[in-house]
Amino acid sequence: MMRSLFSGVAGLKTHQTRMDVIGNNIANVNTTAYKSQNMVFSDLLYQTTQAASGASATGRGGINPRQIGLGSKTGAISTAITSQGSAQSTNNPWDIMIEGDSFFIVNNGSQNFFTRDGSFTVDGAGNLVMANTGYMVMGWQVDPETGDIRQDVVSALTVMDARNLTSDPESTTAGYVTGILDKTDPKINSTAGVIRTMKFFDSQGYEYTAKFSFHGTGEDDYFRVQLDDILDSNSQSLVKKYGLSNIEQIATFGSTENKITTSKYTMDPNASYDATKNEFTVNLAMEQILKDFSANAMVVAAGKNIKVVTPAAAGAVAADATVTVEGEVTLTRAQLEAAPYNLIYDTATSKYHMKGADGKSVEVTDWEAALKAMKGLDTVKNVTATPGDPPENITIKFQADFKTTQASNYDGNSNFGVTLANNADNQTAILDQVYHLKDGDGKTYTIDYVGPDGTAQINMTENNKGNMIVFDHESGKFSYIGSQGNNSATLAFNTSASSLAGDIIDLTQFSSIDIDFSSITNFGNGGKSTLEMTNGTLGSSAIGAGRAPGELIGIEVGQDGRITASYSNGLTKLLGQIAVAEFANASGLSKAGNNLYSATQNSGEFNGVGVDITASGGSMTSGVLEMSNVDLSSEFTTMITTQRGFQANSRIITTSDTLLEELVNLKR
Question: How many whole angstroms separate alpha carbon 640 and alpha carbon 22?
C-alpha cells in the first residue's frame, strides 16, 4: 500500500477538524462574550528509511537522514480569550460588561465557573443570577460593623432581599447655621426676636420643627439664641400636645435661668402718688388715652391743631367711651399724591381725582366720602375742604371719633387724668404711664415696692435663656457660642417628661443635636438678617441630617462592581460587590458550554476569594454587554484556505488510487 494514501486521509481529517472549528466560530458570531478559536496544524509521524551519518576518517562525507512523512494532525486549538469583544448597549442595568482580562464568578450550587457573559437578572428569591443558566453570581458581602465590603470567600449576592427594599429611619444628630445676623435688624431687638426654624427627625423617622429665636442684648457683639418650641409634623406644639408646662421639659438649649436685678425708678413729672390711698394720678396726652389716635394720618398731620369736642366739659370719662376731636390741616399736592391719600392732581382743571370702584379716574367732589374710603381715615366726619393758594394745596377741617383705652378724668383742656390703684391689675399701666417701663427685648418689669414719695423699687427680669453668641468686634466674624472655644451648641433632649396630668411622656426617640454656628457673621445688611438653620453637617449636609423611612427606587452597579441601592429618602446603601477571577494563563481555561469556563491545571487554580476588578486596571460597565470577538472576514478567508487544503488532500487519495490501479493492471 502507498504511504501517500494515508497521508491524504490524515490531511482530510485534519482539515475537517479545522472546518469544525471555523463552523463553531461562525455559529457563535452573535453569542454574548464568545471567544473565537483557531486551529493550527502540525506534521504527523515520519518513517526513516536511512539514518543520517557523519563524515568518515577516510574522507567520505556525511549524508542526511532519509524520512518520509505520514501526513498532518491537529497541533493545537487556541482560544482568543484575551481579545476584547465590542460593546453592545442594552440599557438593562443588570447587563454588565467587563473591560480587562477578568472573569465573573458564578456557581451552580456545587462548583464555581467563570464567564465573560454579563447578562444577569434577579430571580424570585432576590439573587443575582445568570439569565441563561440561573447560576448564582458570586461576590463579597457588606461587613455589618463597618458598612464596607469585606473581601472574604465569595458567596451568592442577594440584592433584592426584603431587608434591602426599605431603608430604616435615622434620627438627626447635627445641624448648622449660616447667614448674616444684622444688629440693626428691627426684629433682633423685638420681644419675639428673629425667628428661625430647623427640621429634624426622631429615631422613628417622624419629622419635627425646632423653633429658635435670636435676640440682641444691648451690646453690639453679643447676641442670644434660645429654643422657643418644638412642633410636630402637624405644626402642633409638643408642649401642648403632651400637656406640659414648658419646652424645657422636653429639651434644653443652653441656660434656662433668668437674671433678676432690682433698681429704683422715679415717677413721670406729670404723675403724683397718694401713699395713703396707695394710688397714682397721672395726666396723659390724647395719643396716650385714645385708641388708634397716632395711626390716623389726618390727626398726625394736624398736629397741635387738634382739640377735644366731646366731652365738651371737664368730668369723668369711662373706659371705651367715645371721644370726638376736631382739627384743621393744610395738605400739599405732594402729601395728597402720597399714601394714604394717593390722589391725582389735574393741572388743567385744578381738581383732584381718585380711582373709582371700576378702576377709572373720577373727580373728588365729596371729600368726606373720599377720605372715609381711605385706610385709617374711616373715622373722619364733618369734612370741609377748601383750595388754597396755590390751588393744589387743600385746607381740610374735620372731626374724628376715638375710643378711650381706660377710665379717666377729662380736664377740659385736651388732657386726661388717670387714677391707678397700685395693684396687680394696674401694674402694666403704672409701669408704662408712671415709670415709662415696658416689657420687651427679653426683659420683664415688676413693681416690688413704692415709697411714700412715689419712688419705686422695680425688679427687672432679664431673659438669659439659651446661648450667648459672641462676634469679633473688628471683623464681625463668629467668635464663639456659650463659652470661648465652642463653635456649636447642643439641643439636648430629656429621656422623659411628666405632664400636668401626671402622665410620664417617653422621649427616648429623640437624639441630641449638635448645632454649628461657626459660619454666621455680624455684618450690616440693610437691617435684614439672613440666618438659615439646616439639619446635617456643615460641608456635608447628609451626615447627621437624619431621615424618614425610605422605599427602594433604584439599584446601580459601579465600575468597581459595587452594587448600591438608592432610596426615596435620599439614602444610598451598599449591598455587595461583584468579585472577579484572574488567571495566570486564561487561555488554559476549559470551555464548559453555556458561555462558561472551568479552571484547569494549566490555567491556574481559583483561590476562592477573587479580586477587585479595579486592582488590575479593569472596570465594569452597566447597561452594556460584550459581543463575540469572531472576525467574519478572517473566518471566511480561513474557510477558503481550508476548503482548498481539503480538495488538495482528496486529490492525493484519488491520485494514489490511480497509481494502485496501474499496479494491479500489470498482471493483465
Answer: 11
DSSP code of 61?
P
Render pLDDT for 49-90 as a digit per residue (tens, 0 to 9). 778 878 877 778 888 888 787 778 888 888 888 888 899 999
Q: How far apart are CA 509 and CA 208, in angstroms?
A: 12
With a CB cutoff of 8 Å and minimum separation 6, the contacts of 289 are 404, 405, 406, 408, 416, 418
The beta strands (E) that lie in 411-512 are given as 416-421, 443-450, 456-463, 467-471, 478-481, 488-493, 496-498, 504-506
- DSSP code of residue 373: T
Q: How many CB atoms lie within 10 A of CB 1?
A: 7
Half-sphere exposure of 340 (CA within 13 A, CB side): 16
Burial grade of 455 (CB within 10 A; 0-12, 13-18, 19 or more): middle
Rg (CA), the chain: 50
Cell numbers standing for residue 616 = 488590575
Report the number of secondary-structure helices (H) and strands (E) in the chain: 8, 48
* Unique residue bearing C-alpha cell 448600591: 564
Amino acid at 11: G
| DSSP-assigned beta bridge partners for residue 128 | 122
CA distance 110 to 564: 28
CA dihedral 604, 606, 610, 613 (to 10 degrees): 40
C-alpha cell at 166: 426599605
Q: Report in angstroms the alpha-carbon separations of 167 from 63, 546, 570, 606.
A: 87, 12, 10, 36
> For the residues of 322-336, what is the DSSP string, one character each?
EEEEEEEEEE-HHHH
- Gap between the Cα atoms of 410 and 312, Å rounded: 10
- 359-402 pLDDT, tens digit per residue, is 788 899 999 988 888 887 888 999 999 998 899 999 999 999 99
Contact status, residue 102 vs residue 139, Cβ threshold 8 Å: no
Phi, psi (5° rounding) for residue 552? -65, 125
Q: What are phi and psi of 662, to 5 degrees?
A: -65, -40
How many degrees, rounded to 5, is the angle at CA 38 between CA 37 and CA 42? 145
CA distances from 373 to 326, 341, 357, 364 (A): 19, 9, 11, 12
On whether the CB atoms of residues 466 and 227 are closer than 8 A, the answer is: yes
Query: Average of pLDDT values for 454-478?
Result: 90
State phi, psi for 18 to the nearest 5 degrees.
-65, -40
Residue 322 pairs with which residues in a beta bridge? 403
